[in-house]
Amino acid sequence: MSKIKILHVVRPAAGGMKNHLINLVKYADKKRFDMTVACPPNTVLWDELVARGIKTIPIPLVGELSPTRDYAAVRSLVKYLHQSGTTVLHAHSSKGALVGRLAALLAGTPVIVFTAHNSIFYEAWPAWKKKLFARVERLLARFTDKIITVSDALKQELMEMEGLPAKQITTIYNGIETDRFNTKVDVKTVRRRLNIPELGQLVGTVARLAPQKGVSYFLKAASLLKDYQVNFLVVGDGPLADELKQEACELGLQGRVIFAGQRDDIAEIMALLDIFVLPSVTEGLPLTILEAMAAGKPVVATRVGGVPEAIVEGKTGLLVAPKDPEALAVALAELIGERDRLQRLGNNGQKYVQEKFTVQNMVEKTMTLYYELLADKKLI
């Protein structure tokens, strides 16, 4: 039997979505599947795909709506789909799904799959924009064979906001390479490299510095813990980087908060931390909390999206309300200095992620879904 040709379509992506896609392609059965990724060139994702030897095609796709570029992307995709004989188009993110599904319809691609990685109904949007987006998604869903959500909470949101039937949506949890985060690291050396003071526990977050990640609330919580011998670490970059650094100064956190910027050594970073914090305002199922758990670190996170599906309250970490720095500070104060409790939470989290959130589980369930959809259409 010839290989099944699959085209992944994605907007410029970094962080969790990038890692999810790369792992999906990296661990797919190469004897059964021939995978290609369509994404914008000269981006972090493109460069990493090329470096890994993954087949790519360039498309002029940007994150925001751009009629000219989006039309050009659809035309490029239709041409490729016709010429390549692609059987499955798998779109990622709402923008990738908009362009990818239109192209697949025009090209007559047999199977269309869409993975929703996070909420598209941003709280700051006006009601009319949410309604418009829901109508567009509802229309495109008619031509989508299966929608994958990375958490049950996200599945429920799509059912409620877009009126989609439960049978059209399936949850496949994000998965990570757990072994990468279960390694020994020279903690003192890495701390010195990042200019982190030797004394005091280290509480940190790894996130894109964008509004939905809620890093401002993490800084406000840190400012309420000045009487504790603890340091804070922020890893990541994004549009709010300068604003957050200024806020840290205004909160009197000079010398207590280290901004490490964008880094590739996340496994080492996780090994440094005593507590990992996820202060997000909205989420699908963030890879960073899974990575922290795989590293044996307790997690304090906001109760949003699929986070409560990964964090078992009181067993693998603590959950707090979003946009509530006081509650976040109280939760952290409960754990700082409680080394036995931190160790117990970390050990429990490590076992939990190894059982439920491995990259092998994610890839196997996705490949099984492809086969089921192809079998339903008598294509295999």
Automatic annotation (TrEMBL):
SUPFAM superfamilies: UDP-Glycosyltransferase/glycogen phosphorylase (SSF53756). Gene3D superfamilies: Glycogen Phosphorylase B (3.40.50.2000). It comes from the Bacteria. Pfam families: Glyco_transf_4 (PF13439), Glycos_transf_1 (PF00534). Keywords: Transferase. One of its GO terms (molecular function) is glycosyltransferase activity. Signal peptide: none annotated. Residues 188-351 form the Glycosyl transferase family domain. Residues 15-180 form the Glycosyltransferase subfamily 4-like N-terminal domain. This is Glycosyl transferase group 1.
